[in-house]
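On clarity, I found the account of how folds are encoded harder to follow than it need be. What matters is that the chain and its backbone geometry are given together, residue for residue. For the editor and my fellow referees, an illustration may be useful. For illustration, here is how one protein appears when written out as sequence plus structure tokens:

___
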Amino acid sequence: MREDSALTTYLALMAVFVPFSLVSIGGGPSVFAPMQREAVDVRNWMSAREFIEIFAIARVAPGPGSMLATLIGWKVSGWGGALVATAAIFVPSSLLCLGVSNVWNRYRGRSWHKALETGLAPIGTGLMFAGVLAIFRLAGAGPLAWGTAIVVAGLLTWRPKMHPFALLLLGAVAFNVALLAGR
């Protein structure tokens, strides 16, 4: 890759991921939907199928959910792109958290503090749901996938400390029963 072309690509990755870093209320999953839109629809860095594959790798790999940004950067511009995208998604929000935490702790217990904390919770939840809907739409998820997601969400709401392997086993059973029923 030519040096000026690489710089342009790195700047484009930063232009996409720095803002996502700063608005990812609720963590990485809250910006999956806009990441998909930017990478697939706006910038044409990859196809919808490639995004789903990269998303799947990011979800099963150990580490933070924001690993998706690293994989998008790698797909766009190799190791350099992976490093730039990773720094762009983690560094700005980390610096912002450091600064906000100092102020946040200083004013803990004030009425505006509690109101802000309470108001941000539904925003983070809504952003995560938008990410789930975007992934399901791209993957062409059928009734079984939707049903499994709804059951798992219900179980985790009912029993938040349920072990993940129990959920994995439940999903495996549901998909195998569906496969057998479809034959």
Notes: The first helix runs from residue 3 to 23. The mean pLDDT is 85. The helical segments are 3-23, 32-42, 48-60, 67-106, 111-139, 143-158, 164-182.
